[in-house]
Amino acid sequence: MMTDPISDLLTRIRNAQKAGHAEVRVPASKLKQQMLHILSDEGYLGKVRFEADKRQGMLIVELRYDKANKGVIDGIRRVSRPGLRVYRPYDQIAQVRAGMGTSVLSTSRGLMTDREARKQRVGGEVLCEIW
Predict the structure, then answer these.
(1) Helix (H, G, I), strand (E, B), or coil: what is residue 60?
(2) Where along the chain do the CATH 3.30.1370.30 domains lie?
(3) What is the mean pLDDT of residues 23-37?
(4) What CATH number is given for 76-130 in this structure?
(5) Which CATH class is domain 5-63?
(6) CB neighbours of 21 closer than 8 A, spacing ≥ 6?
(7) Each residue of 35-48: pLDDT tens digit?
(8) Cα–chain center distance at 131
(9) What share of the chain in percent tops pLDDT 90?
(10) DSSP secondary structure of 67-120
């Protein structure tokens, strides 16, 4: 039984990129799928696709690299975790790396980036930071 599936997702992405893999496979869930689509829209990941199997299905995530074969993601960090939840109102959401990174928040209006949350004036749980 996995206690923190979001940490597992982030660790799989981090490890696959360090190993130079073209893609990574993660067990599917709606939360993971939404998070991966946000990271894909922000330009950190390539395409995300769902592959059905006899259980919950798998999400196949394409990793992105630059021309020098260096991963696009410099760092990825879990902020809120099961033992210590981190909630922020919209006016206290910190910028990641002076605006060069992105935070993913779980709000009452769904998952969104830190920029969207400040724009919509809604706070929530800070799930992760990526730069």
Answers:
(1) strand
(2) 5-63
(3) 97
(4) 3.30.1490.10
(5) alpha beta
(6) 63
(7) 999 999 999 999 99
(8) 11
(9) 98
(10) TTS-BS-S-EEE-SBTTB--EE-GGG-PPGGGGTSEEEEEETTEEEEHHHHHHH
pLDDT on residue 2: 80
Classify the C-alpha dihedral 56-5-24-59 as positive or negative: positive
Task: Name residue 81's amino acid.
Answer: R
Of 93, 90, 87, nearest to 125 by C-alpha is 87
pLDDT tens, residue by residue, 98-111: 999 999 999 999 99
Residue 37 carries which DSSP code? H
Q: Count helices and strands (H / E) in the chain.
A: 3, 8
- At 57-116, the pLDDT tens digits run 999 999 999 999 999 999 999 999 999 999 999 999 999 999 999 999 999 999 999 999
Q: Which two tokens stand for residue 33?
A: 């799928």
Question: In which residue ranges of the chain is CATH 3.30.1490.10 found?
Answer: 76-130
